[in-house]
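WARN no homologs supplied; continuing
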Amino acid sequence: MLEQLFGSKTRVKLLRVFLNNPNQPYYLRELARKLKTQLNSVRREVNNLEKIGILKSVQLVPIGDSQEDPGSDKPKKKKMPPKVKGSKKYFLADSDFILYPELKGLLLKAQLLLERDFVGRIEKMAKVKLFLLTGIFVGVEGFVTDILLVGTVNKKGLAKIVSNFEKELGRSINYTVMTQPEFKYRHDITDRFLYDILEGRKIVIVDQLTDI
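OK structure emitted
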C-alpha cells in the first residue's frame, strides 16, 4: 500500500493538502489550481486515494438551496461546510481510515525534512539575529505569524523560498521580517504582536539578540 500511496509526486502533494486540512472539502479543479498540476493527474490520484479509503467524497448542494420539511411550512436549510459553493463532488480526508494516524505521522516526518531544507535556504540568503518558527510549525493554527526573522533579509529572495516551500507543503505560510531597530522599538514598547510570538510556542533557529 505504501508503494501505491507514494508512487507519484502529485499523490504526496494531495496527501499533504488533505491531511493538513482534514475538515476542508476540495473539488478537483480547485486542487489542480492549488497544486498547479494537470487536472487529469489530480483526478487519477484522487480516485486512487478514494479507492484506498484515505479520502471520501461528498456531493454538496449550492449555498442557499433548501429542502421542504413535510412537517413545516418553512423550508429546512441544509447545513453546509464553511466557504463551500456550487453543486460539485468534493473530497476530504476520512479520519476513520485505519492507517490515518500512521499516515499523518509519516507525512509529519517527511515535512520535518522539508522544513530542515527550508530553514537552511533561509539561513544562507539572510543575515539574521533572530529566526523563530511558530504557528503551523508548532501545531498552532491561525497564529499571528508562522515565521519571525530579525536582521538583514532579501525580501524578494525570501518570498521565492517561501513560495516554493508552500507548493511542497500544500498550504500558505505567513512570515514577518523586522530590522533590528524595529524589533528593539517594538520590544521596548511591549508590542502585543511581538510578545505573542516571544511568549508563545516556538522553535528557535537563531537567537543572537542578547543585548536586547
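Residues 125 and 154 are 7 Å apart (CA to CA).
OK
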